[in-house]
């Protein structure tokens, strides 16, 4: 496969940083990098500009990092409340998706939130409290809280429901531990009886 050397003018996560020279497939360079002005051919003249491109990219990354840090501060600690219809078993009639969270978060903080940066494994389908993370840059993350409650309920109802769930889970764990101890004790008695 034919390759060509290009000088990156923009940071490309899968390839490298601006100012670096990389050997890439000709089709990738001609059809993607060059038309988008993310790279230029690595000629002698272009290589002389490499340091200037590198310095510009460093300044741009520093600015983006400072913006991401500022956004992370604003996003951290946000509390989003979703009042929805739910069944008796605390299951939602529908779900809360990343798009729903991004929209409400953007309304709360007054700046655009990229939904692709929100880290949520699956849509929320149950009432409760959830900690949701958003990755603004590879090294900058923020966490905010999402409460999903029945229509007419408030944040405190979500907290109470979560405390009740934790208490029930703790009681269940204790019950299982006691059952396991009883089983171990009965097995020990049986082994002792067998050896006699």
Task: Write structural notes for this entry.
- With 196 residues, the protein is α+β, with helices and mostly antiparallel strands.
- It has 5 helices and 9 strands.
- The protein has a 4-stranded mixed sheet with strand order 4-9-8-6. It has a 3-stranded antiparallel sheet with strand order 2-1-3.
- A hairpin with a 2-residue loop joins strand 8 (128-137) and strand 9.
- The protein is elongated and about 85 Å long.
Features:
alpha+beta; single chain; about 200 residues; 4-stranded mixed β-sheet
Ranges where pLDDT stays below 50 over 5 or more residues in a row are none
Count of individual helical segments = 5
Number of strands: 9
Radius of gyration, taken over Cα atoms and rounded to an integer in Å: 28 Å
Task: Sketch the major β-sheet.
Answer: 4 strands, mixed
Q: What is the helical fraction, as a range of percent?
A: 40-55%
Q: Assess the beta-strand content as a share of residues.
A: 25-35%
What is the arithmetic mean of pLDDT?
88
State the strand order across the main sheet: 4-9-8-6
Oligomer: single chain
Quick take:
The chain is of the alpha+beta class and 196 residues long. The chain is built from five helices and nine strands, in the order ββαβααββαββββα. It is 47% helix and 27% strand.
Write the layout of secondary structure elements.
Elements: E1 3-8, E2 21-25, H1 26-33, E3 39-41, H2 44-48, H3 50-75, E4 79-84, E5 91-96, H4 98-109, E6 118-119, E7 124-126, E8 128-137, E9 140-150, H5 155-195
Parallel strand pairs: 4-9
Antiparallel strand pairs: 1-2, 1-3, 5-7, 6-8, 8-9
């Amino acid at each position: 496969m034919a390759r060509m050397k290009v000088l990156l003018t923009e940071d490309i996560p899968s390839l490298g940083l601006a100012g670096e020279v990389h050997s890439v497939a000709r089709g990738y360079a001609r059809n993607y990098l060059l038309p988008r002005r993310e790279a230029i051919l690595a000629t002698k003249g272009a290589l002389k500009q490499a340091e200037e491109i590198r310095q510009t990219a460093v300044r741009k990354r520093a600015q983006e990092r400072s913006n991401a840090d500022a956004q992370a501060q604003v996003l951290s600690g946000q509390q989003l409340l979703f009042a929805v219809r739910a069944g008796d078993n605390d299951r939602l009639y529908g779900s809360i998706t990343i798009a729903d969270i991004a929209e409400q978060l953007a309304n709360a903080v007054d700046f655009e939130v990229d939904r692709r940066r929100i880290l949520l494994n699956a849509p929320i389908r149950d009432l409760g409290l959830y900690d949701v993370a958003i990755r603004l840059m590879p090294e900058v993350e923020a966490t905010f809280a999402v409460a999903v409650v029945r229509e007419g309920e408030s944040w405190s109802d979500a907290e109470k429901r979560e405390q009740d769930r934790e208490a029930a889970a703790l009681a269940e764990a204790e019950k299982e531990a006691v059952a396991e101890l009883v089983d171990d004790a009965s097995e020990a008695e049986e082994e002792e009886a067998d050896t006699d």
